[in-house]
Amino acid sequence: MILVRHPLLRMLLLSLTVVATACAGATAGGGGGRGNPDRIVRAELDEVNSATNAYEAIQLIRPGWLRTRGVASFSGQPDPIVVYVDNVRYGEVGSLQSVNLDAVEAIERIDATSATQRWGTGHAGGVLAVTLRRGL
By CB atoms within 10 Å of each CB, which of 5, 68, 85, 92 scores lowest? Predict the structure, then answer.
């Protein structure tokens, strides 16, 4: 154990310890689901009893996903968020109301850059990608 007598050095060491601990806890989820701010997994969906469709579930679990960010440069309107269901373009955010929650395995938020790389142009508002359960 190191004994630090100078108060500023002691405070710095304590601050670094707190930051390191917080960072370790933030990555402990492994990025596969729970704890991943860009993914909603089936276990989270099972916890929202009042939701019947994907839109309502997102509204309860990650409401920020339903809001667009920024404004398109030419039209002055926000770029729409595009919805994909099992990798097939499904519509815009409102179309999630027709996706039965019991059929959903996971929902992922994909930023505009990654969406453009994956599906091409026309995704400046980002994508909500829904994966359906198999064998239902």
Answer: 5
Report d(CA 135, CA 91) in Å as an integer: 24
Which of 121, 120, 95, 117 lies closest to 107, judged by CA? Answer: 95
Q: Could you tell me the pTM of the whole model?
A: 0.72
CATH of 33-132, one of 1.10.3720.10, 3.40.640.10, 2.170.130.10, 2.40.30.170: 2.170.130.10
The tens digit of pLDDT for each residue in 17-53 reads 555 555 444 433 344 556 799 999 999 999 999 999 9
Residue 72 · residue 112 · CB < 8 Å = no
